[in-house]
Specification:
9 helices; seven-stranded mixed β-sheet; alpha+beta; two-stranded parallel ribbon
């Protein structure tokens, strides 16, 4: 190709233009049309010319991909170097269904900081409910009502502010079949003369108002309600729920936050009134058990008594248990234990 009546190789023009841009003495101030054309081509081409019969995909905006790549690299480095903190930021979950803890101590503004419960739902929102279907002696509607009443019982026993302050759980007690043998005796002893076997904490969460109070009004939960057909056509509802309570000392102005973790499994039998004696709208207790951490292992006061200023640690004569772990069933968790056994919580 000729420009201005002379034939000059492209390489020479490209060198000439580079020198012109670099301010080489004697370079023309106004390039010719060919110079402008070659300069434009140089600005558009960022690499060597494509080879013969070489596929060249559409060009992408490289800067965006560089930024995304840099973010991914940084994220991977953080996960590798600080896995616990990164998991909390990125919402990674453990194999047991609980979120990996974020390092740090709890505060009044963030009482669940440093625990898996920081990422759990609050109140009944953390309890998974099944779909109702006709079962045993109940229609689908009756099963649905029984499930709702079972959830209300969990709220009345583990979330009610008055009950947590140590008051008698009137609404929850009203849901129990008082004609079931042993129920009245258990309730009377549990609140008036609690023992390891007649312990109100097996069913009701309570804190001595002179010792501890909730740090805020949020209680974290994780668990589920399930049901099946039980004996004599009864609808047997099982609730397996972990409650996490953040508390502070009842007196003084200390900002130290402690946490008590209570996992309860309660089996409620909604009996056929034609086969079992009971008051309408109540259920019988088939079984109930508690696995608690930082509630006072040898405590028989009828209240949780959390330790303040005490970090959980290994023990030579006790089994170590992660109170947030839910991959283990209560049968496995409680296997071989009795009321006098005290496990060591690996964290609270």
């Amino acid at each position: 190709m000729e420009t201005g009546g002379s034939s000059i190789p492209d390489e020479e023009w490209e060198r000439f233009l580079r020198e012109a841009e670099a301010g080489t003495p004697g370079a023309p101030e106004e390039p010719s049309a060919r110079a402008r054309m070659v300069a434009q081509r140089l600005r558009e081409e960022t690499g060597p010319p494509p080879g013969w019969r070489t596929h060249q995909p559409p060009r992408r905006r490289g800067r965006v991909w560089y930024v995304v790549g840099l973010v991914v690299v940084v994220a991977l480095l953080v996960v590798a170097l600080v896995p616990g903190r990164a998991a909390g930021w990125l919402g990674f979950h453990g194999t047991d269904g609980s979120t990996t803890a974020t390092p740090g101590r709890p505060t009044l503004d963030d009482p669940f900081k440093g625990s898996p419960a920081e990422h759990w739902a609050a109140g009944t929102a953390g309890i998974t409910m099944p779909t109702a279907r006709a079962t045993g002696w109940m229609s689908e509607k009756q099963v649905s009502d029984a499930l709702d009443s079972s959830l209300a019982f969990l709220a009345d026993t583990g979330l009610d502010p008055a009950v947590l302050r140590g008051e008698r759980p009137v609404k929850a007690i009203a849901a129990l079949n008082q004609q079931q043998p042993g129920t009245k005796e258990y309730l009377a002893n549990a609140f008036d003369a609690p023992t390891r076997t007649d312990d109100p904490l097996l069913l009701f969460s309570r804190f001595d108002p002179s010792y501890a109070r909730l740090a805020g009004d949020v209680i974290k939960t994780r668990g589920a309600i399930t049901y099946r057909e039980g004996e004599r056509g009864a609808v047997e509802v099982t609730a397996d729920v972990t409650f996490v309570y953040a508390v502070v000392r009842a007196s003084g102005d200390s900002d130290e936050v402690a946490r008590t973790i209570a996992r309860r499994e309660i089996v409620m039998s909604w009996d056929d009134p034609d086969k079992v004696i009971g008051d309408p709208g109540t259920f019988s207790l088939k079984s109930y058990r508690l696995d608690a951490a930082n509630g006072g292992c040898e405590n028989t006061t009828g209240y949780f008594r959390p330790d303040f200023g005490k970090e959980p640690g290994p023990s030579d004569d006790a089994t170590e248990v992660d109170p947030y772990e839910r991959g283990t069933s209560m049968d496995e968790r409680m296997k071989g234990r009795d009321a006098a056994d005290c496990d060591t919580a690996t964290r609270t």
